[in-house]
Design a protein that fits this description.
single chain; five-stranded parallel sheet; binds (2R)-2,3-dihydroxypropanoic acid; alpha/beta; 15% strand
Length: 291
């Protein structure tokens, strides 16, 4: 008998059809007969799924999934690494440019009919991206893709890996700091109040990784003070965003769209589907999450 497949939503792209019958239901609805569960990094209460054998995650980050608990019950987990590096790196660069060059503020002012001054007057002065120093926190696949792009902007790229290198030494040397570590016990709260204070005046923090990597209250305080700027795609309590940020000209925000292109999301679906099909055939997963 075919293993029952449940997904928390239908995923985009032509690959999806290859799965055949898929029940669409929320992760927190009991699924006694579900053998394969497709999620988008939602938490899964394993007690609701006594027959579960595979959690196929439509996301490279699996911070909300209890991989150790799943493994203890013989449940495999897969994710979608690789296919979203370019799109996420593109967005990191877009946020750097948007914040430092006032792209969003300028757009808003034009639409509001507030472009009343000569172009050479205030408030239209931004800060350079080209030729500045970029600090990359987490030089994995996405961090490396950002580094590659930054070279094209003549940026001087410095980096620390998640667990190596001296972050405290790097931060004061950077004009832009971009976060690319996965969220886990070692990186939750990595950007503490003290570390944010190490950023130099006028520096820009870019976060396309996870909001919980940063002390969000401390970041809000720094941004409200106007000392630094930020490009934020992720937040600690999504979709809730601190309202203090709404009117700040030194912040550009996007709603967790690092992988949000048609092409990338369809490629992510392909990876999920290929993992599920491999699992159903009794073959090794293509992209297993290993403990
Ligand atoms: C990812 O793949 O981790 C993206 O952030 C979407 O969650």
């Amino acid at each position: 008998m075919a293993v029952k497949v449940r997904a928390t939503r239908t995923l985009p792209g032509p690959a999806w059809a290859a799965l055949g019958e898929v029940e669409i239901a929320p992760a927190d609805e009991p699924g006694p007969g579900v053998g394969i569960l497709i999620v988008t990094n939602e938490p899964v209460d394993l007690d609701l799924y006594p027959s579960l054998r595979l959690i196929a995650n439509y996301s490279v980050g699996y911070d909300r999934i209890d991989v150790a608990g799943a493994s203890a019950r013989g449940i495999a987990v897969s994710n979608t690494p690789g296919v979203l590096d370019a799109a996420t790196a593109d967005l990191a660069i877009a946020l750097m440019l948007a914040v430092r060059r006032g792209v969003v503020t300028g757009d808003r002012m034009i639409r509001a009919g507030e472009w009343g001054t000569h172009w050479a007057g205030p408030p239209f002065l931004g800060h350079d991206v080209s030729g500045t120093t970029l600090g990359i926190v987490g030089l994995g696949r996405i961090g490396s893709a950002v580094a590659k792009r930054a070279v094209g902007f003549d940026m001087r790229v410095v980096s620390v890996r998640a667990r190596e290198g001296n972050l405290d030494e790097m931060l004061p040397a950077c004009d832009v700091v971009s976060l690319h570590v996965p969220l886990g016990p070692q990186t939750r709260g990595l950007m503490t109040r003290e570390r944010l204070a190490l950023l130099k005046d006028g520096a820009t923090l870019v976060n396309t990784a996870r909001g919980e990597i940063v002390d969000e209250d401390a970041l809000v305080a720094e941004l409200v003070s106007g000392r630094i700027s930020a490009g934020l795609d992720v937040f600690a309590y999504e979709p809730s965003v601190p309202s203090e940020l709404f009117d700040l000209p030194n912040v550009v925000m996007t709603p967790h769209i690092g992988s949000g292109t048609v092409e990338t999301r369809e490629a992510m679906t392909r990876v999920v589907v290929d993992n599920v099909l491999a699992f159903q055939r009794g073959e090794p997963l293509l992209t297993p999450v290993l403990l």
